[in-house]
Amino acid sequence: MQVGFEAKRLFTNFTGLGNYSRFVVNALSEFAPENIYTLYSPKIKSHPEVDPILARTNIKAIGPTGGFTFFKGLWRSWGVSLSPSIQSLNIFHGLSQELPSGLPKHIRKIVTVHDLIYIRYPKFYNPIDVAIYTAKVKSACRIADKVIAISQQTADDLIEFIKVDPAKIEVVYQGSHPIFKTKASTQEKAIVKAKYNLPDEYILNVGTIEERKNVKRLVEALALLPESIRIPVVIVGRATDYLKEVIACAQERKVIDKIILIHQASFQDLPALYQMATVFVYPSLFEGFGIPLLEAIESGVPVITSQGSCFHEAAGPDAIYVDPNNAESLGAALNNVLTDSALAERVISTSTKYIKRFEPQVIASDLIRVYKNA
Question: Which PANTHER family does this entry report, sorted A to Z (predicted)?
């Protein structure tokens, strides 16, 4: 089987959608090596995350040629369908909610949809972006023979908001970056601890500091803890204007001295940041999946997260769930984890077993099944 991918973000994005793209291609290359995988991208460039993929013998990359080298966006949306190599494909898979128009009829078309948060919560987005994203995902779902949703939550949203035929949707989960399977050494942890001036114990939160991620609720919960067990909160993520609300809340609740902000953490430092944490808290209001939950569980950290949305799918039945709109609920959960080591260990153990379903060999098998059924 010959499989082509719309792979722009594999080469250009080194967080969410890029990590997903590389995870998928790596998993398929390793666990379904009999196939040929072609990456179509307007930019093909060297990077430590990309080079090992391109070195595999069953993977090749193709970029724009001729006049399309000056109109790369047009090539990605339409010109890629004119590439001679397209004719030999059996499958074309859009990895990030898009498919080019004009693909030959004989090719089975697959698109992965990660979330429809911009439709469910348009207030968090620029209206122009909402219109563009919505038009692209509707077009891709219309063209596709199969739509891969990365969670049942996303599958439900596809049915509710853009009326995709349920028979067309397949839920195939995603996995975390392999870096989180590696145990940081004592020396590596010491370096990271010194680099970010971390305390011996801390509550960790990772994600863009924006309203939907709801980190202000964590600050409110922190203030409710008895001072005897109140440990610092380390917030790792890009800042937005919402950060002002978080800081104001911490000042008002008199816990500003317990807040540590890290806006430019190296991706290579994240495993140590997770592994040194006492507990990971993810009080997000809504996600398509919630990869930080997997990262924390892979790192051997107990997880507290939100009820509803996709969080039970990502973290499993044994994580601790709270009402994300209720600081008292979150505070009580924190109190329990911080004062009951047996509870923390139980959550870690059972959650670690649960996430075996997100291993790359499982994901590769599920994707091949979708390809064959398309």
Answer: GLYCOSYLTRANSFERASE WBBK-RELATED (PTHR46401)
